[in-house]
Amino acid sequence: MNEEIYSERILNCYTIEDLTRLFSLAELLEMARAGILQPWLAENFSEEAAEILSPEEIISWSDDELKLALCELLEIDLDELSDYDAQAIERALNKRQLKELYGGAGTIVTNQRELIDALNNGDLIIYLVGGVFQIPLNKGGVTYYGRENALVEIPNRRDVDFDSAEISLNDLQIFLRNSITVKYANSSNLIFLRGDKIALNDGVKKIDVYKLLRGRRTFETPENFSQRAEDMRGIVVGKVILDEKNYNINLQMFDLKIDWHFDFLPVARKFIGKFFSCNIPAGLAAQIYATERAQLVYADFCASGDRPDIKQLYLINADGTRFDILVTDKPAQEYFAEQKENQSSGSGGSGYGLELITVYDDGIIWTYDGEDWV
Questions:
Q1: Which of 21, 33, 128, 277 is the most buried if burial means most Cβ atoms within 10 Å?
Q2: What is the Cα–Cα distance from 374 to 367, expressed in whole angstroms?
Q3: How far apart are CA 158 and CA 327, in angstroms?
Q4: What is the three-class DSSP state of 368?
Q5: pLDDT at 148
Q6: At what angle do helices 83-98 and 63-74 cross, to 10 degrees?
Q7: What does the domain layout of the chain look like in residue ranges?
Q8: What is the pLDDT of residues 73-132, one digit of tens each?
């Protein structure tokens, strides 16, 4: 930023209209940070506005927050903003609304980057809203509150002691990637989700999974290998973290992004470029989202020549309900729209989403008929 050029240009401004015509929002932000804008505001517009934007006040503001304040104080026409600045204003408005809803005396964060910024600023009361977070143990003395089903992921392979770090966790879902012990006496209302399972059946050993992944043995008949693969059911091959932004209320489906376990990458390669989705009716989806955002991905296997192959992917929630995962070449919404168009033109074959039938514990079978789940 060339402060001298800004100082000269602002001398050509006599009204707010001149100011907002000659300077972009990004330039106004730079001038506010440099203390160039405030004297002009005090002399030509409003001493109150200059005080609101004083360098001492705005030093702790994010750029998004400062852009919002400039738009409001200077009555900048939102239609004139670039897409980049409009998105910044939307983020700041969302943050302000969340602050009103949840913030109190704390700091609102919605993603990991904002969390690190808050910790580096020395904030000690932090509201984790909606996102997925990892808590740095080297930043102690912090109290965290979860809102809107925020989830904390703990990737550590060693035991974690939040108490020694004087960290308090409250109202959060906690996903443990590995089998570890967590000390959290100073915390409350936590839901623990464990990601250290090998298979749905606790009797399955990891060594048996590894043996299958190596393929058919030299002296094993194809029929025996095929049976060995078919017997390998409910194997944990990865995880998904549900995101409400990826829930389609019309299809009643979550779009999924699978985080594959590295051991299964050879058999998962066939899914590169594919799209994953899962039908969960809205009422049940809301319950699962509130208590089980992190879901293990299970697979049933089969044989493909001398190598193992994944036959079916699915989720299973805490009460044992299974939800089959649909794999398509395009996003689910496009997939079903195309299926509906094909049916209308008489080329739809046997109907909609037959791969996506999901059986619930009460015996009800749901399938998509092109308009709704029935």
A1: 128
A2: 6
A3: 35
A4: strand
A5: 94
A6: 100
A7: 3-91, 107-194, 206-366
A8: 998 988 888 999 999 999 999 988 988 888 678 899 999 999 999 999 899 999 999 999
